[in-house]
Amino acid sequence: MDRKHSKLLEMSEVIYAEPDMTKKVKFDRGEMEERIVDIYVSADTLRDSETCTKREETADTAPNNGPGDQHSEQHCQEGWRYFDSSLYFLSTEKKTWEESRQDCLERGADLVIINSKEEQTFLFNLHLRAWIGLTDSVTEGTWKWVDDTSLTTKYWRGGQPDDNGQEDCAEIYYGQDDPVQTWNDDNCLKYHDWICEKVV
């Protein structure tokens, strides 16, 4: 059994183990939610790596059909996930909106631009609170994507955007039940995870 499958098996044993009720363990709600998110993110990472391996094997045995064959290699770049013709990088640290955007640009990408309900749902299922490529810092109340296109389809949480204290940058905020009501405006100087997008 390879290392990835061994790790996945170990994680599922921990998840489904009978709790030891003789120990008094106390978590606050935030810590428990964070642990649950870590388990899901770890499991998804293992699943994505396995998918990449299968894609590489398929690409190695399939006839070369031209430039499109290069995508299987790109799908497997470390730290990136593939969905509907784009690669997504999920940060593992927190930065301001501008620092996050700069990191994306250095990776040959930009902060994510959400173009469809399917993409929004995909990002919601990553269980992150992260910067996205949307801001109204140029003109208050006029939200634009990092490619300078105007916002048309909106997935704001109820009551948002509210510009509650210089909140000019948008984040996707996991924690809502409805995957299409998860955006929040926040102060651009706050530190959050971020999501980069590179169209392939």
UniProtKB/TrEMBL annotation:
<dbReference type="InterPro" id="IPR018378">
    <property type="entry name" value="C-type_lectin_CS"/>
</dbReference>
<dbReference type="InterPro" id="IPR033989">
    <property type="entry name" value="CD209-like_CTLD"/>
</dbReference>
<dbReference type="InterPro" id="IPR050111">
    <property type="entry name" value="C-type_lectin/snaclec_domain"/>
</dbReference>
<dbReference type="GO" id="GO:0030246">
    <property type="term" value="F:carbohydrate binding"/>
</dbReference>
<dbReference type="InterPro" id="IPR001304">
    <property type="entry name" value="C-type_lectin-like"/>
</dbReference>
<protein>
    <submittedName>
        <fullName>CD209 antigen-like protein E</fullName>
    </submittedName>
</protein>
<keyword id="KW-0430">Lectin</keyword>
<dbReference type="InterPro" id="IPR016187">
    <property type="entry name" value="CTDL_fold"/>
</dbReference>
<feature type="region of interest" description="Disordered">
    <location>
        <begin position="51"/>
        <end position="74"/>
    </location>
</feature>
<dbReference type="InterPro" id="IPR016186">
    <property type="entry name" value="C-type_lectin-like/link_sf"/>
</dbReference>
<feature type="domain" description="C-type lectin">
    <location>
        <begin position="83"/>
        <end position="197"/>
    </location>
</feature>
<dbReference type="Pfam" id="PF00059">
    <property type="entry name" value="Lectin_C"/>
</dbReference>
<keyword id="KW-1015">Disulfide bond</keyword>
